Amino acid sequence: MNNSVRDLRSERGWSQAELAQKLDVSRQTVNAIETGKYDPSLPLAFKIARLFGMPIEMIFVPGEE
């Protein structure tokens, strides 16, 4: 799955640690999501979408399998 979390975070001037704190996850989790090594759970994806004020499907898009 591809995502735009890194770009959205950078646009707001937030560090990975700041985003992690806002989402109540570890910085390592944010890094893994941004690098595509981890797909977030549905509740976490909703939390990310709410935080950025965007629909989930605008942040997370299926990649080629």
UniProtKB/TrEMBL annotation:
<feature type="domain" description="HTH cro/C1-type">
    <location>
        <begin position="5"/>
        <end position="59"/>
    </location>
</feature>
<dbReference type="Pfam" id="PF01381">
    <property type="entry name" value="HTH_3"/>
</dbReference>
<dbReference type="InterPro" id="IPR010982">
    <property type="entry name" value="Lambda_DNA-bd_dom_sf"/>
</dbReference>
<keyword id="KW-0238">DNA-binding</keyword>
<protein>
    <submittedName>
        <fullName>Transcriptional regulator</fullName>
    </submittedName>
</protein>
<dbReference type="GO" id="GO:0003677">
    <property type="term" value="F:DNA binding"/>
</dbReference>
<dbReference type="InterPro" id="IPR001387">
    <property type="entry name" value="Cro/C1-type_HTH"/>
</dbReference>
